[in-house]
Structures are given as structure tokens and as C-alpha cells.
Design a protein that fits this description.
- There is one protein chain.
- The chain has one domain.
- It starts with 20 loop residues before the first strand and ends with a helix.
- The protein has 432 residues and is α+β, with helices and mostly antiparallel strands.
- It is built from 16 helices and eleven strands.
């Protein structure tokens, strides 16, 4: 009887009042909250829309200025939510011995990512980036909008389209939803603090009905197929114009693949690949969306991203600089250029490394990173010849890097979802 593989591997509407912010100190809580009025179709168990004011919309928009590492850290500490494979990647850094980093500062700024927009978060009603920023100043912004113009009212749809309230907004909205009378909907006011916003962010990344999932505790999964295996890699391949000139040096990694299921069990990689993965945690969410945007995807986070452009064009944002900050936030200047595979750095940024050189690592399908033993596990398994397992070499360039970055937000089988597709593609290409 052949050994089992596991034996070898251990690895809003006009005329309706909406109170969007209350000082929670009067309610026995130190955590500030904002309030959202949702309108629910009880028969369908679906949020049809919500109404709110500028302070909540600003917090939604602040999602895009959060580094991915901050999203992973907050999700673990506030809501027990796993954000794709970012959670495992982040925990890998926590567990990786300090001796593998160039210095202690390198590990610290990955565990506690530096946010180039930290001073803005300090002025919002709910600050999602709760670490003390480097050099940030905190202004007294009570009652003053930071990103959008003061005293603006908005409609938020279930899939996170943000619409300014205008005289005809209600009629247009009701018609688009197939509703004849708003009074037939159940009205509920929700209090949103950090945990609720993080849940909303999580659902926006993987569904097109984020408000419904927030209200019903995550029972309404997206009906689309946008998160199926291989889709992330293919959509990134076809939609990103930033990979057309893939002139950077390519590197090779080894994948251990279970042939019958076409899944990646793990990868054996050198420093370059781990540096790439660790760089993900320094990138603001908006930069990830800009680099990997798939216009065909109905995910709510894409609608929220598009709302920034529409409101900016309609002059609802405070300035063009605010629009630029939301759509194209910068990686904090504290970070050196650790990879050439992602166009995320200012050209003036010097090269550097998070890790010491000359190490080999094992990366699992969900991006858990561990140090490889002195003897190559993959080489040993390949030599033994385990049934149903093969070692596959994959070349990593900008296309693959962008696909892995995109998949890390939503998938817990990143290497399978991305690299199996690229393996097939590379095998099909004639050798030069």
C-alpha cells in the first residue's frame, strides 16, 4: 500500500432624519461610533439601501488608505476574521525568529505597518488605524469633515455604491430596486464601531451584498463566480496594463503539486519571493485595487472604489488632492524597495531587504511562511517519488506577482489559484 501524502508532509432619503454620530462617552463606552440607518426587505432578508452622512462615508473611503498589514492585524485582533491569506502571512511574520530579519526595525514595521496617511485617520470619527503614527499630528476635527464636504447626506447601496442625496435620488433608487413604496421596508439603525467596519471591509472584498452580510451576520454569499479557482489570476492577466512590459528579472520557485487534485501543497522559495510577499503588507488597499482592478467583477469593494471617482468628479470631495490621496495613496517612505516585481515605490526609494540573505523558505498554499530545514524537503520528496505528487518549477515575474497580490485578499489557496494557471501557460508557450 502506497504511503499517504500526509505521512510525508507536515507542513439616504430627503426628509428623513439620520443621526450618524453620537458621542458614545454618554453611553458608557470610550469607543466612538457612527450610526447607519438601513432599510431591509424582511421577506428577502436583504438590505435594499442605507442612509447616512459624511462621517460614515469618510470611514468607508478610509479603507483604501489602510496598508494590507494593518487590515490583517486589525481583523485578527478585533473580529476574528481571516482576510484571504493575508492573515496567515501576517502571523508568519509574528512567528518568524528575529534572527532572520536584517534588523528588529524591519520586523516591527511589518508587524505594525507605517501608514503614509496616518494623520488623516486621526481626524475621522472612527479611526481604523489605531497605532500611534510616525510624525502624525492630530487636529481637532470634531464636526468637521476631513475628506468630503461638510453636511453632505448619502445613500449607500447593499453593494456599496455611494450616491449623494439629491431631489430625485429617492425616485431613481426606488425604481432601480423595483420598489414602489419605501414604507414597505423595515427600518433599522445600526451602530458601527471598529469591529463592524472591519466586518464590512471583509464582506466588501468577497461579496456584492456587504450591508446584508453585516446585518445578517455573513449568511449571504456572493452569487457570482468571481472568486472561483484560476479566475483571479486570469482577470489580473487580462486587465492590468502595468504588466505589458515585464522586463524585470524573472526568478524560479519549486511547487509541490498533488496531481489528482491540481492543488499546490507548498512551495520552496528563496528570499526574493518572501520579500515580495512581505511587501504586500506595506501596500495601501487602494494601490492594490488600482494595480489589479477587474472591471468585470461585481465585488462591493470595486463599487466603493468607483464611488470615489464619481464623487470627486461631482465635486463632493474636499479637493482634488483628497481624491488623489484616496485613489493613489503612497507606500510610506519608511520602506525601502525590497522587490522589483511590483510598481509600488517612488523611483527615488533606495533598495533594501527585510530579510538576511541566503535563506530558503517553505510557503504554504495560504501563504504561511516558515524557514526550510537544511535539507530540501521538496528535493527529498521528488527523489523518493511519492505517488500523485510532482515537483513543478514556475517562473515568477510581474504577471505572477500581481496575481498573487490580488488573490491574497480573498483566497486561502493563493498558490493553487494563481500559479497552476501560470504553470499551464508557461508549458504551452514555445521555448525561445
Amino acid at each position: 500500500m502506497a504511503p499517504h501524502i500526509n505521512d510525508y508532509i507536515l507542513v439616504l432619503c430627503p426628509g428623513r432624519a439620520c443621526t450618524s454620530h453620537i458621542n458614545d462617552d454618554t453611553m458608557g463606552s470610550k469607543e466612538k461610533s457612527v450610526y447607519l440607518k438601513v432599510f431591509i426587505d424582511k421577506k428577502k432578508k436583504k438590505v435594499m439601501f442605507a442612509e447616512t452622512e459624511e462621517d460614515l462615508v469618510e470611514i468607508l473611503f478610509s479603507f483604501f488608505m489602510l496598508p494590507l498589514g494593518t487590515i490583517a492585524r486589525l481583523s485578527s485582533s478585533h473580529s476574528d476574521l481571516q482576510v484571504g491569506s493575508l492573515t496567515c502571512l501576517y502571523e508568519s511574520i509574528l512567528n518568524l525568529d528575529d534572527k532572520h530579519f536584517t534588523n528588529s526595525y524591519c520586523k516591527d514595521i511589518l508587524v505594525n505597518p507605517v501608514n503614509a496617511s496616518a494623520s488623516v485617520f486621526q481626524k475621522l470619527k472612527v479611526n481604523l488605524d489605531d497605532r500611534n503614527p510616525f510624525g502624525a499630528t492630530v487636529g481637532d476635527s470634531e464636526g468637521i469633515a476631513v475628506l468630503v464636504k461638510n453636511k453632505s447626506s448619502f445613500i449607500v447601496t447593499d453593494d456599496l455604491n455611494i450616491l449623494p442625496v439629491l431631489p430625485n435620488t429617492s425616485i431613481i433608487l426606488l425604481n432601480s430596486l423595483g420598489l414602489g413604496d419605501i414604507d414597505l421596508l423595515d427600518e433599522r439603525t445600526m451602530r458601527l464601531g471598529i469591529a463592524e467596519f472591519l466586518n464590512l471591509l471583509k464582506w466588501s472584498l468577497v461579496t456584492n451584498n456587504s450591508l446584508t452580510n453585516l446585518v445578517y451576520g455573513g449568511t449571504k454569499l456572493c452569487s457570482c463566480s468571481c472568486l472561483c479557482s484560476l479566475c483571479i489570476a486570469n482577470s489580473t492577466l487580462h486587465n492590468s496594463t502595468l504588466i505589458l512590459n515585464d522586463s524585470c528579472q524573472r526568478h524560479t520557485i519549486k511547487l509541490l503539486v498533488q496531481k489528482s487534485k491540481l492543488i499546490v501543497l507548498c512551495a520552496e522559495v528563496e528570499n526574493f519571493f518572501v520579500e515580495l510577499l512581505f511587501s504586500f503588507l506595506t501596500i495601501p488597499l487602494s494601490t492594490v485595487k488600482r494595480l489589479t482592478m477587474d472591471n468585470s467583477s461585481p465585488l462591493a469593494i470595486n463599487n466603493l472604489f468607483g464611488s470615489i471617482t464619481r464623487l470627486g468628479d461631482g465635486e463632493y470631495l474636499k479637493s482634488e488632492d483628497v481624491k488623489t490621496m484616496l485613489l493613489s495613496p503612497k507606500v510610506a517612505p519608511n520602506y525601502q524597495r525590497v522587490t522589483e516585481l511590483l510598481p509600488i515605490y517612488d523611483p527615488r526609494v533606495c533598495s533594501g531587504h527585510f530579510l538576511k540573505k541566503h535563506a530558503t523558505f517553505i510557503v504554504s498554499d495560504d501563504l504561511k511562511v516558515t524557514v526550510s530545514p537544511s535539507t530540501s524537503i521538496i528535493s527529498v520528496l521528488n527523489t523518493i517519488g511519492i505517488p500523485d505528487v510532482e515537483v513543478v518549477e514556475v517562473s515568477i515575474g510581474k504577471q505572477e506577482a500581481l496575481a498573487i497580490l490580488k488573490a491574497s485578499l480573498t483566497s486561502t489557496s493563493v498558490l493553487t489559484d494563481c500559479l497552476i494557471a501560470f504553470t499551464r501557460k508557461q508549458k504551452a508557450e514555445p521555448s525561445s
